[in-house]
Design a protein that fits this description.
Elements (H helix, E strand, L loop, with lengths): L2 E4 L12 E3 L8 E3 L5 E8 L7 H13 L8 E3 L12 H4 L4 H13 L2 E8 L11 E8 L8 E7 L9 H4 L9 E5 L2 E9 L6 H9 L4 E5 L7 H15 L2 E5 L2 E3 L4 E3 L3 E3 L5 E4 L5 E8 H10 L9 H4 L9
Parallel strand pairs: 4-5, 5-6, 10-11, 11-12
Antiparallel strand pairs: 1-17, 2-3, 4-17, 6-7, 7-8, 9-10, 12-15, 13-14, 15-16
Amino acid sequence: MLQAQFLQDMGPPRAGAGQEQAHGRHPGRRFARRYPALMRAHLVQLDIVWEDRRANLDRAERLLDGVDVGPGDLIVLPEMFDSGFSLNTDVTADDGTTAAWLARLADDLGAVVMGGRTVGGCANGGCGKATNHCTVYAPAPEGGQPLALCDYAKIHPFTYGREAEKFVGGREVTTFAWEAGGQRLTVCPTICYDLRFPELYRLGLSMGAELFTCIANFPAARRAHWRTLALARAIENQAFVLAVNRSGKDPYLAYAGGTIAVGPGGEVIGELGEQEAVLSVNLDVAGLYAWRREFPAWRDAKLMAQLTPGVRSVPR
């Protein structure tokens, strides 16, 4: 149903595939045309430099320089990719630099770009604490500015890791529409510890989610949990899951990478090891709809309305 490969090892376009010229800051790049019903995502597993925004933005940009990004593709960067999982929010809170970089990258590459950052101040009513965000931009329409598609605030601060001491949780499950090549998927972003809470994902499903992203700084000590939970969230919601972790170490923890893309039937589309790398996956949109029609387990959910009155128990 789905295909994946390391972007660094991508071969020439498949026989019969047309070519189109790139635009933006890589005028020499060329792309293979997409086959119908396939959407393409690029998962950036970054070895994050501790509390060094400029170094991390430059590092991510260098990694993406070697990637064949096509118009409308989705680029996913880890949680707090500009700083690492730091509680020193006075230093790491985004002053607008990271958001502006995400917007510029989206516009330069003609892609939808999402990545994690710390937002200071009194966001979500948590005066005195920061919020942990996944911010999403799309390319600018002709004559306009890059479009802010979504700015999800992590609902579940990681209490065990003391995140709740410096961060307040968000209040809303959010979705946005990703459109490319005449195809469309409804995307529900989540962040790291959120992966342990299936009710968040079920609420996303009730809002029409067909693809869940989970950006993370998930430690090596719990790498088996990371993989198992990503598979479970895909299977139970009959949805794509793109779980993007960091690699390397910070002053406190080691990270095992393990970025993984999972299909709606629980099949592993692609998976990275421990090293910094970018993974590309093709998502078979028609295959997702076919699986949901063939095995419509999502229709049999019974308890969502009791847990959250007024919430639909089936996707749109």
